[in-house]
Amino acid sequence: MSKLVDSLKNFIFRRQHAYKVTFDGPLAEEVLRDLATFCRAAETTFHEDERVGQALNGRREVWLRIQNHLKLTQDEIYELVTGAADSKTIVVQSEDSQQ
Predict the structure, then answer these.
(1) What pLDDT, on the 0 to 100 scale, is given for residue 99?
(2) Cβ–Cβ < 8 Å for 59, 38
(3) Is there a contact between 42 and 32 (Cβ–Cβ < 8 Å)?
(4) How many CB atoms lie within 10 A of CB 96?
């Protein structure tokens, strides 16, 4: 593996670790529940006003990024970052949407 690939993987894995440490514990669960609601994790982001809909999509994108770092394996995150996942479908389902 090249130095560049190793550096990229180390960066990604360190960042994932930071997400996992940050979003661990009872207070983190409270924050994640709030973000799930605010970011519309389990509901549509459609809005009649296109600009409002775009803002809601931005919130959802943040939620998905957090969930990707918390739920996906390091290899799956690497594939997403490098584009290797383009031929695959990786779906992260929020715990709220499973209920």
Answers:
(1) 42
(2) yes
(3) no
(4) 15
Burial of 67 (0-12, 13-18, 19+ CB in 10 A): buried
- 79 near 72, Cβ under 8 Å? no
- Catalogue the E-assigned strands of 1-99: none
Rounded Cα distance between 59 and 81, Å, is 20
User: pTM of this prediction?
Assistant: 0.80
Judge contact between 94 and 36, C-beta under 8 A.
yes
Quick one: pLDDT at residue 92?
58
DSSP 8: H
**How far apart, in whole angstroms, are the C-alpha atoms of residue 84 and residue 60?**
23
The two structure tokens encoding residue 10: 């180390």
Q: How far apart are the first and last CA of the chain?
A: 42
Please name the amino acid found at residue 25: G
